[in-house]
Amino acid sequence: MTRIAVDQNKDMLGVIDVQPTFMEGGELPVPDGAAVVPVINRLLHHRFRNAFATQDWHPPHHSSFASRHPGREPYEQLAMPYGPQILWPDHAIQNTPGAALHPALDQHRIEIIIRKGWRPEIDSYSAFLENDGRTSTGLKGILRDRSIERLFLAGLAADFCVAWSARHAVEFGFQVFVILDGVRGIGLPTPDGADTIIEAHAELHRLGVRFIRSDDLDGY
């Protein structure tokens, strides 16, 4: 693959939901989730001077939690006013250790932190829009004001918050790269016999998202 030179004025690393709640011992662990931390730290040290992070930040008893719906189990799907919603184990509760950015994550170049999912009545996967597809986090305007053109995404989970962030970034006109060794996915089964990682990858490929590895990048 042709190597990619990082433009420190126009490129930004997006660090998606790198929180203990999504790692081994957390409330909603992504398989091998902690493995993204050293990859992202290397990118922050040697490739990107500019980065933003997202942080799942749910109030207790969030409407997306299966515990809020008697008779329902985690990972079932439920119709919400804004559309279909997967029900999750309680996770990323505001002001708990699991909801903090991972303590081993080097935050010295993370200049923006977007908290999402804090409205009790609606879930939020994307760094840009909540799950109704209308309510903005404000990130698009920040990036436009900074003249950012390309986004490089890493974090958790590849098939949910990373994928939704990539999808909306494309819709808003950014060129998007997903750093494969810097993401891990949940991999829920889908009705067609695949899983959510496979389906997300295929959709993003159709949208023109490029999949790379951290070693494909030249920094500074």
From TrEMBL:
It comes from the Bacteria. Its EC number is 3.5.1.19. It is an enzyme of class 3 (hydrolase). Keywords: Hydrolase, Metal-binding, Pyridine nucleotide biosynthesis. InterPro entries: Isochorismatase-like_dom (IPR000868), Isochorismatase-like_sf (IPR036380), Isochorismatase_Nicotinamidase (IPR052347). The keyword Metal-binding applies. One of its GO terms (molecular function) is nicotinamidase activity. The keyword Metal-binding applies. Residues 15-185 form the Isochorismatase-like domain. Pathway: Cofactor biosynthesis; nicotinate biosynthesis; nicotinate from nicotinamide: step 1/1. PANTHER family: LD05707P, PYRAZINAMIDASE/NICOTINAMIDASE. Belongs to the isochorismatase family. This is nicotinamidase. It comes from Rhizosaccharibacter radicis.
